[in-house]
Specification:
It contains eight helices and nine strands. The chain is of the alpha/beta class. A six-stranded mixed sheet has the order 5-6-7-3-8-9, sandwiched between helices. It has a three-stranded antiparallel sheet with strand order 2-1-4, covered by helices on one side. Helix 3 packs across helix 4. The N and C termini lie far apart (43 Å).
Length: 243
């Protein structure tokens, strides 16, 4: 029961039930079952190649999985997504503002940005300290700067569910702090977040719940409950196989 000072979660709960995935006769995920509570920050950890990104893509409807993934919306239904990396032709004459405009409007970004979207774009870029680089070409950005732009686009429109697949990969310390601060703000607003993260110190500090995946669920619970030395060794002392 909610107290007088406690708002209901903005984001949905998510149920993963016996989720499986095979590609080219290789088992990527097998019988993956756990629940993400509404409004929680739920981190996914595990060795490289253990299937975390494949599970994220299954959640987004991009992989032909078996089993069931159910999103139980409580209010809005907006999903924001930050991938590990954006694969694109770095020679394309696309600026940061062009890229952000394409998120907002249907008309070609190269013609103009509609006035009503300019403030939205500038505010999102300002949150990630990229508002001064709107005219830079995407191909000229560093890896960390590109990750900040990808994070900014995930905030338009404001998400009820935010899916983060290693958003800190390749980012500098300043950018990492900026993104962490935004994530904490979203957490206070009870946006549901599913966050693939290799930084166990950060997971312990920020997550409400954590699930360790290496094809199957190795363990799941609160950080205090499950991030013991024995279990961490169990997870990361395992040689990963498969994509």
């Amino acid at each position: 029961m909610l107290t007088k000072n406690e708002d209901p979660p903005r984001g949905p709960s998510i149920c993963f039930e016996m989720v499986g995935l095979c590609l080219s006769n290789i088992t990527i995920l097998q019988d993956v079952s756990f629940t993400v509570k509404a409004g929680d920050m739920h981190c996914l950890i595990g060795p490289n190649g253990g299937g975390k990104t494949s599970l994220i893509l299954s959640l987004l409807g991009q992989m032909p999985h078996t089993g069931r993934i159910e999103i139980n919306w409580t209010g809005g239904t907006t999903i924001g997504y930050v991938p590990q990396v954006l694969d694109f032709d770095r020679t394309l004459p696309v600026t940061v503002n062009n890229f952000m405009t394409m998120i907002c409007q249907n008309m070609p970004a190269f013609i103009r940005t509609r006035k009503r979207y300019k403030d939205i774009i500038n505010n999102a870029l300002r949150l990630v300290s990229m508002d001064t680089k709107g005219e830079r070409r995407l191909g000229e950005l560093s890896g960390g700067e590109m990750q900040r732009v990808l994070f900014a686009q995930a905030l338009i429109p404001f998400p009820d569910l935010l899916i983060l697949d290693e958003p800190g990969a390749g980012i500098d310390s300043v950018g990492a702090r900026v993104i962490e601060e935004i994530i904490l703000v979203l957490k206070k607003q009870k946006v549901t977040m599913v966050w693939t993260n290799h930084d166990l110190k950060q997971v312990k500090h920020m997550a409400d719940a954590v699930t360790c995946i290496h094809k199957q669920v190795l363990f799941s619970g609160t950080p205090d409950e499950v991030l013991t030395t024995e279990r961490v060794f169990q997870a990361f002392g395992t040689t990963s196989t498969g994509p």
